[in-house]
Design a protein that fits this description.
7 strands, four-stranded antiparallel sheet, 43% strand, three-stranded antiparallel sheet, mainly beta
Length: 83
């Protein structure tokens, strides 16, 4: 994350209360990565050009915006396995 502006809500989203997880959009590639309280990371497969990661209230799904062209975005949703 050197020389990268970290913006809560834009580049990362905290998991639901009590889960100790967060999801962030990898700055260079825009992939979504889920990180737990121990610092272990898992990439969410198939993600690219991602922004605004946000969790469902029960922590089972993760939504984000994906760039789909100039000034166009698509909402993506993925199920996230709990450990």
């Amino acid at each position: 994350f050197d020389n990268t502006v970290i913006v809560p809500g834009l580049t990362f989203g905290w998991g639901p209360s009590g889960t100790k997880v967060m999801a962030y959009a990898e700055p260079a590639k825009g992939r979504i990565v889920v990180m737990d309280g121990d610092g272990d990371r898992r990439e969410v497969g198939g993600t690219k050009d991602a922004l605004l990661p946000a969790w469902s209230t029960d922590g089972s799904r993760l939504a984000w915006l994906e760039r789909a062209g100039r000034n166009r975005f698509v909402v993506r949703v993925a199920r996230v396995a709990r450990d």
